[in-house]
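Protein modeling request. Please complete all fields; requests missing the sequence field cannot be processed.
Requester role: graduate student
Desired output: 3D structure, token encoding
Chains: 1
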Amino acid sequence: MIELNDADILPDDLKALFDSLDYEEEGGLGVDLIEYLSNEVHLTFSLSLGDISQQWQLQILNYKGSKIDIDNLGGYFKFYSSHYLMYEYLDNSTELYVKKGCDNPEQLLSEIYKLHNTVFENYIPLERFLNGDDLLKCCKSQFGLFARGPKGILSYYFECLKKMGNEPYYIGDYTLTEWDGTKQIPTNKDLKLIIIGGTYFVGQSFVFKRISK
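Delivered output (213 residues):
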């Protein structure tokens, strides 16, 4: 992961507020509105600091994807130019297969759960890339497709399967494309990630605008 300096993205007055001791001790952030437009998302949020309240809008331009968890909202923004949450929008797609079953599928399932809890920090749903909704059935498979998705994510599953003796292997290497209005073109890989608690957005650029005085 490569974390970006927030000073390069946040307006000076917003960064000064986040960096203040008063905000650290008694400040808070709340989401007022999320608007999904054609290729961007606008997140309107309020910052409270004692009797002071400010309303801001974050614009995610050339929006690619997100996860919203309002109940697990942090108080600070973090920015990344490289992160596992970006693999889905940057990496080539592939399919992960197994040649044989493992002796302990319950242990394999436990390893997958551990992976999502520790490495992926529960940002990625268990069923997102695995083959089917019945995860134990997937882990009991004697052969065939185990998962489909970005190779950067599937490489973690590959190591779990290899450890359990499933003899994993990949098939396919598919370049990501997107529709430009007339034809499919290679996906724009000039992307960034913004995380706030359990919520994140992937887009090309982030713009902060103050709404209230």
